[in-house]
Amino acid sequence: MKTELERLDEQLGRGLEGGAWHGPSVLEVLDGVSAHQAAAHPIAGAHSIWELVLHLCSDYVLVLRRLAGDGRPLTESEGWPSVPESSAENWAESTRVLKQLNAELRRAIRSFPPERLDEPLVPEVPYTAYTQFIGVTQHGLYHAGQMALLKKALGPVDPATPRPS
Q1: Does 162 reside within a domain?
Q2: What is the pLDDT of residues 66-103, one digit of tens each?
Q3: Domain assignment present for 38
Q4: Is-contact 45 34, C-beta < 8 A?
Q5: How much is the average pLDDT of 43-62?
Q6: Rounded CA gap, 95 and 92, in Å?
Q7: Do the domain assignments include residue 147?
Q8: Per the domain annotation, does 52 fall within a domain?
Q9: What average pLDDT does this structure show over 115-141?
Q10: What is the number of alpha carbons within 13 Å of residue 42 lying toward its C-beta?
Q11: Would you call 118 exposed, middle or buried from its count of C-beta atoms within 10 A (0-12, 13-18, 19+)?
């Protein structure tokens, strides 16, 4: 039988990499999206796919920061970082960082003391560790849905476009 921490780790992995019961994961949605497409704003007033990817990175950073005992909230620029120059290299780097931060948080969750799951990570934030761990997964899937709509609004993606590495 899996422990609660193993279940949280698994859900965080499924939400990013695939195998989520609801539909496509973040990386499944990003499959075939080019840097140009990721930076585009096909829906007026909506964030771009790239902006959402960077925002998800900031969410991982926030929870990792809280795990380290730092209860400061994200600043606006931390929560919604600027998109770098649109290039295949920068797009690949953004998706690499997303995967790296997901892996870091998953490692931290696996080593988290299970008896602390119902306690806040830091005094400044009233949410329990469990709520933050499952919340970062839910947040990722919420934005995966937005990315899927943006991708659809962009029209067909080029099957020759390399997958985010």
Answers
A1: no
A2: 999 999 999 999 999 999 999 999 999 999 999 999 99
A3: yes
A4: no
A5: 97
A6: 5
A7: yes
A8: yes
A9: 96
A10: 16
A11: exposed
